[in-house]
Amino acid sequence: MENDYVQPMELSQFQNGHYCPCQYLIVDRKQVDVFFSIASDEYQHLDLDHPKLTVPGEQGGYALPSASYGVENGDLIDFRIDFVDRDVPDHLTMTFGVTMKTTI
What we know:
By secondary structure, the protein is mainly beta.
């Protein structure tokens, strides 16, 4: 934060009772770190599916985390996208599914 590498964002999405704000980005020539959270009014534990990334032009040339993972309601998540064979595009869309977990 001291060197202005972190870019505060004011992006969010609300769907099916889940709120997902994107708080920060760190962008350099070959990678993007996305800091976001996901909140639910009903569930404390959530599973995020492997995300789908939509970028302009050629669809290859990047690497994403390959596994789904569980999070607590409202936790800040750091998600890294590495662009191996290309520079970071001007824009991209990240889509992922959310599964609610109930504890018994």
